[in-house]
Amino acid sequence: MYKVALNFEDGVTRFVTTLPMETVADAAYRSGLNIPLDCRDGACGTCKCHCESGQYEMDGYIDDALSDHEAEQQFVLTCCMIPESDCVVTVPASSEVCVRSQQADVHAKLTDINLLSDSTLSFTVASDQVRAMHFLPGQYVNVQVPGTDQSRAYSFSSMINEADESVSFLIRVVPEGLMSTFMAGKAQIGDELVLRGPYGSFYLRDVKRPVLMLAGGTGLAPFMAMLEKIQQEGSEYPVHLIYGVTNDVDLVELEKLDAFAAAIDNFTFTACVASEESNWPHKGYVTHHIEPGQLNDGDVDIYLCGPPPMVEAVNAFMQEKGIQPTSFHYEKFAASK
């Protein structure tokens, strides 16, 4: 048995003891700590942490969850990490998040479906159980596809609407995708959806310095919830969002972003389109529109949500510029059928 020190980002340290061949995630769960976790089999990357010291075994994960470069830097997936000595592990979440009540199923009614473009739709659900989820802006839930035993992960694109206890989601329309097919052709207002969560360590921290948000496609969703929270609380620091898509048709929710820009004194945004055939004034990738002032010589909190190639491109950009941000939180996703 080995002792593992879990250092949370709010300065709190908790100790857990692993049993023989037990993963750090399982030991933490057994001790009443819910390290951000989802798939439990090395596929999603939700439980990614950093091992500061100690020896461990770690097998059975995929590259999308943890790259070879990250593994060389001793980043770990706690759902696969089996200690071979005492270890110190840094958890990219606050201790408060990790002692919240366990995830539970929430049954909600579908109240709205809106096809925003050929590639994107939004839907809203309502339930008096939603408040019990205690989610933070940026986190996600697994939504079961009605009529199947399959679920899909979607970030909240809003905070809770107090008037009708509803929350919204922004999702990509995937050809022949289970959820896309249901939402686009079968769903009816009043249908029941089952949500489980919340999950993830990608959430808005207290705004203590300039913030740079980088969204790719429907990776815009968590930022909509974050901006809603910032609008409620205000910010004395500049917050800038760069929202990138592939084609003009993929640009959605621009009116809402304009509304946030009008309501939040320090918020600005840039939308860009990668396609060379685009008629949009801002062309290219997200990294083409990051300005030095937005990086603030590294004294900046960066939030990034997008597909794996975008995450890798931003990481390469930061290394090329020699920028080490004060904090860098990211969520990478791939659309699934």
Explain what you see.
It is globular and about 60 Å long. The strands form four sheets. It has a six-stranded antiparallel beta sheet with strand order 11-10-13-8-9-12. A five-stranded mixed beta sheet has the order 2-1-7-3-5. Helix 5 runs parallel beside helix 6. The longest helix is centred in the last third of the chain and has 14 residues. The chain folds into three domains: about 100 residues, Ubiquitin-like (UB roll) (Roll), CATH 3.10.20.30; about 100 residues, Translation factors (Elongation Factor Tu (Ef-tu), domain 3), CATH 2.40.30.10; about 120 residues, 3-Layer(aba) Sandwich (Rossmann fold), CATH 3.40.50.80. By secondary structure, it is an alpha/beta fold. The model has no long low-confidence stretch (mean pLDDT about 90). The chain has eight helices and 18 strands. Helix content is about 20%, strand content about 30%.
Q: What integer value in Å does the Rg equal?
A: 20 Å
Shape summary = globular
Secondary-structure class: alpha/beta
H/E element order: EEHEEHEEEHEEEEEHEEHEHEHEHE
Strand order in the largest sheet = 11-10-13-8-9-12
For the sheet with most strands, the description reads:
6 strands, antiparallel
What's the helix and strand layout?
Elements: E1 2-8, E2 13-18, H1 24-30, E3 48-53, E4 56-58, H2 68-72, E5 75-77, E6 81-83, E7 87-91, H3 95-98, E8 104-115, E9 120-126, E10 140-144, E11 151-155, E12 166-172, H4 178-186, E13 192-199, E14 211-216, H5 221-233, E15 239-245, H6 254-263, E16 267-273, H7 292-295, E17 301-306, H8 308-321, E18 327-332
Parallel strand pairs: 1-7, 14-15, 14-17, 15-16, 17-18
Antiparallel strand pairs: 1-2, 3-5, 3-7, 4-6, 8-9, 8-13, 9-12, 10-11, 10-13
Helix pairs in contact: 5-6
